Amino acid sequence: MFRYLVLGLLRSGEPQHGYSIMKGYEERTGVKMSSGNFYRELIRLTIDGMVRFTENPSDSDPRRAPYVITDEGKAAFDEWLADLDRIRVGPEACDDVVGRAMFFGVADPNTVRGLINHWVEELWYKTKDTERSRDAVLTAEDEVPFPVRSLLLARRLKHMAADIEFLTELGETYEQWISTRGEAGGVVSRGNSSSFEPKLSLAPRRPRR
Fold first, then answer.
1. Mean pLDDT, the chain, as a whole number?
2. How far is CA 44 from the centre of its chain?
3. Which of 170, 172, 177, 187 could serve as 196's disulfide partner, Cβ 3.0–4.6 Å?
4. Angle between helix 2-10 and 35-47 (nearest 10)
5. Is the sign of the CA dihedral 23, 24, 30, 34 positive or negative?
6. Rounded mean pLDDT of 100-126?
7. Would you say residue 139 has pLDDT above 80?
8. 3-state secondary structure string, the chain?
9. Cα–Cα nearest to 200, from 90, 124, 144
10. Smallest Cα–Cα separation from 93: which of 112, 114, 118?
11. Confidence bin at 209 (pLDDT 50/70/90)
12. Rounded to an integer, what distance in angstroms lies between the CA atom of residue 169 and that of residue 167?
């Protein structure tokens, strides 16, 4: 996923050198990462034709070569951002939320809504599956010395409940933000309150690819 984060940081089309890209990541996520990770990924992306070197302004440090995203890189990032089939959900998959949410400010609003609803729906299904597993374990734990499995499943349920609450808050905050920008496509008008309501489908689950 890291390559798509780098592509997203370059998605605006503005030339940036590796240090600037790294600082942009830190500013958006609050997470510090080694500059070597960014430079190694930039080299790979350059080899793959998704970014390229561009001319260094005359007044800039000649030791810092700026990079710019190519059309192929833009297409790859846009496809990744909206691809629901490549998203992992659950407490172990927080990076997918972080990786995509940091680009919500420049993404198509309907893509953002689709992602958040997908995350909530998948977590809802996982919650139901975990509840069934916990209930089955509870009926058999009289035969074990310590009921650790049911406690671990309960821990997962608490994590998923917290994630669903967070995603709902994320959706509400996004709708409030987008409403002030006058975007079209079912967004409330300026000055009206907006409440994000996750859309859960109760139809049978779609087969996994």
1. 80
2. 22
3. 172
4. 80
5. negative
6. 89
7. no
8. CHHHHHHHHHCCCCCECHHHHHHHHHHHHCCCCCHHHHHHHHHHHHHCCCEEECCCCCCCCCCCCCEEECHHHHHHHHHHHHCHHHCCCCHHHHHHHHHHHCCHHHCCHHHHHHHHHHHHHHHHHHHHHHHHHHHHHHCCHHHCCCCHHHHHHHHHHHHHHHHHHHHHHHHHHHHHHHHCCCCCCCCCCCCCCCCCCCCCCCCCCCCCC
9. 124
10. 118
11. very low
12. 5
Per-residue pLDDT reduced to its tens digit, 163-198: 899 999 999 999 999 988 865 443 333 333 456 777
Dig out the tokens for 119 from the structure.
């995350």
Helical pair 18-29 and 35-47, crossing angle rounded to 10 deg:
120
Q: Which residue has the tokens 């605006």?
A: 12
pLDDT in tens, 48-59: 999 998 877 666
**Contact indicator for 116, 167 with CB cutoff of 8 Å:** yes
Cβ 49 vs Cβ 61: under 8 Å: no
Number of Cβ within 10 Å of residue 173's Cβ equals 13
Please provide the distance, in angstroms rounded to a whole number, between the alpha carbons at the two ends of the chain: 18
Residues in the chain: 209
